[in-house]
Amino acid sequence: MHKDIVVRQLPNFINGDFVETGDTFDVLYPVTGEVTAQAHRAGQAEVDAAVAAARAALTGPWGGLAQAERSSMMRAIADGIVKRFDDFLEAEVLDTGKPKAVASHVDIPRGGANFATFADIVKDHPTEAFRLDTPDGAGALNYGVRRPRGVIGVISPWNLPLLLMTWKVGPALACGNTVVVKPSEVTPSTATLLGEVMNEVGVPAGVFNVVHGFGETGAMITSHPDVDGITFTGETGTGSIILKAVAPTLKASSMEMGGKNAGIVFEDADLDLAVAELGRSCFLNTGQVCLGTERVYVHESIFDTVASRLVDYAKNELRYGYPDDPSTNFGPVVSDEHRDKVLSYYKLAEQEGATVLHGGGAPVFGDERDGGSWVEPTIWTGLAHDSRVATEEIFGPAVALIPFRDEDEVVRLANDTRYGLAATFFSTDVSRVHRVAPRLEAGIVWVNSWFLRDLRTAFGGMKQSGIGREGGVHGLEFYTEMTNVCVKIGT
Ligand code: NAD
Ligand code: 6OD
C-alpha cells in the first residue's frame, strides 16, 4: 500500500464539543477503496442539539460582537486553516482521492479565502438610504438595517468539500449567523477538522456545528422549525426535494445545483488557449466540477483540428497517479457509485452512436488502485445535440464535441438546456465577445478562460441550476434580513 492508513473517527461537532454517536458509517479512499475513517451519524437528538446550540449562540457572545470584531474572528479562522494547511490537504485527499497538486491549489486555499474575503465584504458594505420628499414638504429619511437571518443550515456536496462548505459558512458567519453544517457523507473529514480550527481560534461554542450523515440527516435540518434558512449545493433532484421540505416552515433557501455547461470554440479563437482552457474545464478534478464543460460546440471549419488537439491534451497533459506524486493531476472519481454512473454514460454514448476519440472505459493498473474508483478521460464526437449523453449531467471527465455553422445556431444550441450554470467560449473578435456573452443563459460566462473566480462577484445558476445568487454583496440578500427604517422629518 502506498499509504499507511490509520482509520480515523469523525465525530459530530456540536456546541464546541466533539460528539460520537457510535452509529458509524465508513469513509473510503477512492484511490484504492480502503476504509480511512468512520463518521458518526447524527440522529434527531444530535440535530436538535446542534440547532439549539446555534440558536443560543445567536444572542450569546457571537451576537454581541461588533462587525469589526466579527470580521477579525473571520480572519483568524482563515489563518487557522492556513496554519493547518497540511492537515486539511491530507484529509481532503483521503476523502476524495484528488491529487495534492489540485487540492493544494484549488480546494484548501479557497477554504481560507472564503472567510477572509467575506470578512471584508460585510464589514465595508454601506447601508442604503433614501430621502423621500412628501407633499407637505417635510419628507422622510429611509435607511436599511441588516440583521443576521439566524440559524443557517448548510448542506454541501463531495466534489470540492472544504471549498464549497466554506463558500457558505464564510458569508453566513461574517453576517453574524450561526450554522449547522451537513457535509456530504462521502467527504466528511474537512468539516470535522474545521471544528477543531474553530475551537483553536476561539470562535464561541455553538456558532459552527457539524452533523454527519446521509440525506436523512440533511432532511432533519431542512424540516427543522428552528432553522431559519437553508443554503444548499448539490444535485438538482436533491434541491427539488429540499425545496419541498422547506415549504411547511417557509424557510429562505439559496440553491446551487447541477449543470450541463456548454463550451464554444469560434473559428477566430486562439486555439492554443482554447484547447488548454477547455482541457482544464473538461478534466480538472476528474470532471467533477459543477462549472465544468461537458458539451463543446466547435465551428465546423476547425472541428477536426480542435478534436485532435483536445485528444492530444488528454493523452499528454493528464497524468493518472497517486495523489502524493506532485506530477499527478488526474485522480479517481469520488466513489464506486459515482464511477458506475459515469461508466453507464460511457456505455450509453456508444449506444447513442458516439465515436470514441479517447478513453471510454476504466483504466486497469494491475495494482492496489484496481480497488479504487477510476475512469478514463473521454472525448466523443458523433453525438446528437439532443442525445441523453449531451443533455444530462454526467459529472465526470467526459465531453461531447458537436459542430456548428454560425453564431445564431450555436447560441441557440448552448441555451437549449434545462440548466443555466456556466458557459465558456473562445473568440478573438471583440465585437463577437460582447455580442455573444449576454445572449448565453448562464450565471457565469467565461470568455477565453475558465474557472477564474473573483469572490466579490455574483455566483449562481439560472433555470434548474439554481435559485438566488451568492458571492460579494449579493449573498447579503440571503444571509441577512433587511428592515427599512422610515423616519418622518418634521417641518
Ligand atoms: P447531492 O445532491 O447528492 O448531495 C448534496 C448534499 O445533499 C449531501 O450532503 C447529501 O447528503 C445531501 N442530501 C441528500 N439528500 C438530501 C435530502 N433529502 N435532504 C437534505 N439533504 C440531502 O449532490 P452530490 O452528489 O454531493 O454533488 C454533486 C452535484 O452537486 C452535481 O449535480 C453538481 O452539479 C452539483 N454541484 C453544484 C454546484 C453549484 O455551485 N451549482 C457546485 C458543486 C456541485
Ligand atoms: O468558486 C465558487 O465559489 C464555487 N461555488 C464553485 C463551484 C464549483 C462547483 O463544483
Layout of helices and strands, plus pairs?
Blueprint: E1 8-10, E2 12-14, E3 17-19, E4 24-29, E5 34-40, H1 44-59, H2 67-83, H3 85-96, H4 100-103, H5 107-123, E6 129-132, E7 140-148, E8 151-155, H6 161-174, E9 178-182, H7 189-201, E10 208-210, H8 215-222, E11 229-233, H9 236-246, E12 252-256, E13 261-265, H10 271-283, E14 293-299, H11 303-317, H12 336-351, E15 355-358, E16 378-381, H13 388-391, E17 398-404, H14 407-415, E18 419-420, E19 422-426, H15 430-436, E20 444-447, E21 462-463, E22 466-467, H16 476-479, E23 480-488
Parallel strand pairs: 1-5, 8-9, 8-11, 9-10, 11-12, 13-14, 13-19, 14-17, 16-17, 19-20
Antiparallel strand pairs: 2-3, 4-5, 6-7, 7-23, 12-22, 15-16, 18-21
Helix pairs in contact: 2-5, 2-7, 5-6, 10-11
The site of (2E,4E)-2-amino-6-oxohexa-2,4-dienoic acid (6OD) has 9 residues, from α6.
Main sheet?
7 strands, mixed
Return Rg in Å: 24 Å
Strand content: 15-25%
Low-confidence stretches: none
Report the structural category: alpha/beta
The number of helical segments is 16
CATH topology of the largest domain: Aldehyde Dehydrogenase, Chain A, domain 1
- Average pLDDT across residues? 97
Give the number of DSSP strands: 23
In the CATH scheme, the class of the largest domain would be: Alpha Beta
Terminal CA distance = 82 Å
List the strand order in the largest sheet: 15-16-17-14-13-19-20
What spatial form do the alpha-carbon principal axes imply? globular
Number of domains: 2
Label the CATH architecture of the largest domain. 3-Layer(aba) Sandwich
> What compounds sit in this structure?
nicotinamide-adenine-dinucleotide, (2E,4E)-2-amino-6-oxohexa-2,4-dienoic acid
**Assembly classification:** single chain
- Kindly state the percentage of residues in helix: 25-40%
Classified in CATH, the superfamily of the largest domain is Aldehyde Dehydrogenase, Chain A, domain 1
